[in-house]
Amino acid sequence: MPGPPSDVIRAVQNGQRFLVASHYNPDGDAIGATAAMGWLLTALGKQVDLYNRTGLPKTLDWVGLPAALSTAAPRGAYDAAFVLDCGDLERIGPELTAALDPKTIVNIDHHLGNPLFGAVNWIDPAYSSAGEMVADVARELGVPLTGGLAQAVYLSIVTDTGYFSYSNTGPRSLETAAELLRLGLDTAALNASIQNQWSLERIHLWSESLGRATLYCNGQLGLIRIMTADLVRTGTTVEDCEGLINFVARVRGVRVAVSLREHPGLVKFSLRSNGAFNVQAIAAEFGGGGHRNAAGGHVPGSVEHAETALVAACAKHLEQEPA
Ligand SMILES: [Mn+2]
To answer: With the C-alpha atoms ordered 284, 290, 295, 296, is the resulting torsion angle positive or negative?
Structure first.
């Protein structure tokens, strides 16, 4: 398994002043990779600024950072700007794109189809997460995976692999996690910090939405609807809907899970499947996209209309590909 290319290692070694950034509306890997790269550079005695357009989400405000995570686009010049976990440059936001010298961008990412927007590009979908890539840079440079660096790498790996349950979990993910444990990381405490971040409002939303879950197609299709009124009534936001669909997929016999979320004038849909059943092909019929097991898009009109259209499309695919 190839590790970090020499031009990435050289960018770290040869520079002194660095920027580290990831995509806005950051998930665990975006924050984990940002923090990990920050800790790594700090350990090497380098100067580092951290940037995220929308900042640290409330659920991750406990993450240890080597410097403040700024939401203001940086001025000043950097020897290199590490852009992590961004499937395209748009994901860091227009403010930073305008502020950066393109010749300094080092693009480190694990998304297939990354358009290589950096002056240096290290794209490898064999890695579970951007944080796992940073761990290999640390190894290469002899920086031990301890302290804040260890926590950040672990956060990246477990959030992007769903605690080692998704198909992107590679031998390297487990080996890196094993090394973190061996070096003393308290994973039980960290798991609690990562997972126990729900609000009571979120529980109420999930309870309402899952309480109305419906099965179609002889139990092979599970569907939930999230109405704008649900969010208003429970005092929640769209972020609180993340992960809801996975519970519908857990119903025995369900081969495709569908979630519908009401928007002004349209309905956003998400589809999930396991194994060979391809939901990307279904999403594509509505102009959407994604992967074989996770896809989405939107349909104009009401939730009722979207439900009828998506159930019909899924039924057709379920018939074409019997279990
Ligand atoms: Mn990622």
So the answer is: negative
